[in-house]
Amino acid sequence: EKRLEGLRDTQESVQGLSLWCQANKRHSQAIVDTWLRILRKSPVEKRLTMFYLANDIVQHAKRKSDVTIVNQWAFAVQKAT
């Protein structure tokens, strides 16, 4: 949760957290649930950065053909909009 709350609007921050999420994919559902909870309580100006993070994670998962991760994030993004 602290990592997601500390996300900044920089490419390095988004990519760094994306890599961390990918490295901890065994906890992916908890990460997705936490992302959605934090997104909902975040100020509008931070929400775009949260979506950049989701996009980066999904793009990497698609390249690796990780359907589970893609589906988890797709469901969360759908719930967020």
From TrEMBL:
This is CID domain-containing protein. InterPro entries: CID_dom (IPR006569). Residues 1-81 form the CID domain. PANTHER family: CYCLIN-DEPENDENT KINASE INHIBITOR-RELATED PROTEIN, REGULATION OF NUCLEAR PRE-MRNA DOMAIN-CONTAINING PROTEIN 2. GO terms for molecular function: RNA polymerase II complex binding. Pfam families: CID (PF04818). One of its GO terms (biological process) is mRNA 3'-end processing. Transmembrane segments: none annotated.
